[in-house]
C-alpha cells in the first residue's frame, strides 16, 4: 500500500486500518479428544492448530516454538480489549487471569501456587537465583560444563564480584550414562559447596541429566539445587513434586508453545528463606513467593494469560503423549540420519539418555550453507552450531511435527550429502 492509499483509508475508516480482521486460525476445527493410542491422523489435527504453512517443517523447538491458534487468539483478544479500554477498572480482570495462569503452572508442575513466580524467560529465572543466593569468598558452586550462559556465565561473572569459586563437572561425549553424573557430582562436593546448578537437557546435543538423583544428592548434603528446565518444560512430563529441586526455571516460548517473554521460576517452600529478591517494583503477584519476587512493574498481562492457554492446550492433548510423540519422532530422525554416509551424530542413540534434540556433523559440508539450503529450498527450519565443540546441525522435533516432516528432512540431508550445497 502506498502513502496516498494509506491516507485515504485513514480518512474513510478512522482507526479501522489498525483493526486486524477476523483471524482465520480462530475458526480452525477444534482439537479432537486424544485417543488412547494417537495415530498420525490425530497428530495432523494437532498440526492444524498452528498457523505455520503446511510446507514448513520447523525442527527448531529447542530455540523457538510457534504458538498455537488458541494461544494467539487469547493474546490478540485480550490485548485488543486492554487497548480499547486501558483503565484500571477494565484491567482488573487481567490480574485475575494472571493468577489463574499461576494456578495452571502449579498444577502443570505438580507444586503449589505459593511456589511459582511468572518471569520473562529461563534466563531471567536463572539470574534471579544466582543474584539472590548469599555467596561469599570460600564458597563453591558446582556446574555442568555444558550449560546455557544464563546458568553458566552468570555464575562465573558473579564469582568475580563476590569471590566464590565455580567448578565445572565435565560433560564427555557420547553421554556416559546417568550414574556417571550422579557419582561425578557426589565426588565433587566439598564442605564449601553451596549450590549445584545444571541443565535438565542440554541445548547442544540433547544430553539428559538425572535431575531427581542429582537433586537428592544435593539435598542430602544441605546444598541448594537449580535445574535449568529450558529444554524440558513443555516437552517432558516434569513432576517437581517428585524431583524436589530447590529451584526450577523454564520459558514459554520454547517447548510449551506459549507467548514470548514469559517464563516460570519455581522456588521450593523449603528454599524461600534462603534467597533474596533482587528486583523491586510495582504490581507483584498475589500469593506466596510471588508477592516478593514478582514485582517487575507493568507486565504484558494478555500474554501472561495466553501462557495459561498454552498450558491448557498441552494438558488437553496429554503431557505424557506429547513427550512420547517427541521421542518417537526423534528416534525416527536419528535412525534415518545413521544410514547416511559421513554423517556423525553427536547425540546418544540411547532413548533413555535424551528426549528430542539431535545434533550431527554433515561430513565436510559447510554447516551454514546446508542450513540455508534446507530452509530456502526444502522449507525445513533447523539450528547451526559452529566452533570446535560438536559443531554441526541441530534438529529438535516436537509434537506439532509429523513423520512426513522427518522423512522429508532425512531425504534432504541425504541429497545434499550426495550433491553438495
Question: How would you explain this protein's 3D organization?
Answer:
The protein has helices spanning 3-13, 40-47, 69-84, 88-109, 122-132, 153-162, 178-188, 211-220, 240-243, 290-293, 301-317, 319-338, 367-378, 403-419; strands at 57-58, 116-119, 140-144, 165-169, 193-199, 224-228, 247-251, 263-267, 343-345, 358-362, 380-381, 383-385, 392-395. A 7-stranded mixed sheet has the order 2-8-7-6-5-3-4, with helices on both faces. It has a 4-stranded antiparallel sheet with strand order 9-10-13-12, with helices on one face. The radius of gyration is 23 Å and the shape is globular. Helices cover 41% and strands 13% of the residues. Mean pLDDT is 94; it is low at 5-22. Strand 6 (224-228), helix 9 and strand 7 (247-251) form a beta-alpha-beta unit. By secondary structure, it is α/β, with parallel strands linked by helices. It folds into 2 domains: 93-315, Type I PLP-dependent aspartate aminotransferase-like (Major domain) (Aspartate Aminotransferase, domain 2, 3-Layer(aba) Sandwich); 320-419, Aspartate Aminotransferase, domain 1, CATH 3.90.1150. The protein is built from 14 helices and 13 strands.
